[in-house]
Amino acid sequence: MNIEQLEYVVEVAKTKSISIASENLKISQSGISRSISNLENELGMKLFIRSKSGTLLTDDGEKIVKIAYEIVSKLQLLKEEAQVITTSIHGKLKISSSPSLITLLLKVIPLFKKDYPGVKLEITEQAENEIIDDIRNNRIDIGLVFINENIQNSTDLKYGTLVSGTLNVCVNKNSPLSLHHTLSPKEILDQPLAMFNGVNMKKFIEQFFNDHGEMEILFMSNNSETVKRAVVDGIAITFIIDLALNDDIYVKNGSIVLIPLIDCGITTIPFGWIRLNNQYFSYLEREFIKYLQIVSTGYFKKDS
Prior knowledge:
Layout: H1 3-15, H2 18-25, H3 29-43, E1 48-51, E2 54-57, H4 59-86, E3 91-97, H5 102-115, E4 119-125, H6 128-136, E5 142-146, H7 149-152, E6 157-165, E7 167-172, E8 193-196, H8 199-212, E9 217-221, H9 224-232, E10 238-241, H10 249-252, E11 256-260, E12 269-276, H11 283-296
Parallel strand pairs: 3-4, 3-5, 8-9
Antiparallel strand pairs: 1-2, 5-12, 6-12, 7-10, 7-11
């Protein structure tokens, strides 16, 4: 038994595919298969079975991979700590954010890159259901999303809360609605609606329509800028979390106005980070989340 065999087992268990594990580890498929077979012979048990769903762990494999994961994680931690001590950190982080936390993310990136210039960051903006799917399929490392009950009750996702936002109605500056200090559902039912095409917003709209009556949906879009543009052009209103428009140019120049939505049962909405629960928590991931926490508490506010 050797470390490489344990690394292969962990990677195949994570990806459910020998071919994907081969690509990730830069090892031939035959090399991984042979190494795992040798380990199975040594242990006297079958670790994986092939099915239509991929290469899956057996019951014995489930027990072994937990131990292998702990060993591989400790080894990776040792390597990373040595790198921190002796050299500058290099690596890659893939991060995806819902529109509500893009502003926070853009404040974190320059601060993180200043301290870790050798780290490559890949940033995307997506709907929250897409982010969760990418996390579960190992396409991204960290997701920034609304921390709903499904995430809180999930066994395969680890999360942390960063900030809370409030739901607002976003209207054009010339709309009569812009003169209101608050807006209730009955005051906006006759307005055309542009909405962000995210799973949580869809759930909110469905509940809103059930409770208060339906509105005309002008369009749905995965692009938050397109939704805001509809408000700027005065052709629709939208619902939006106030966090999503912190430092927004349209808000600053007065083109659009945010008005708190009342009488619909919503107070504060928690947002935070998510990652896979049973996956090695790398030094870079821990550091980036630390920066997210610092910025979200306003520690760097004086520098922003």
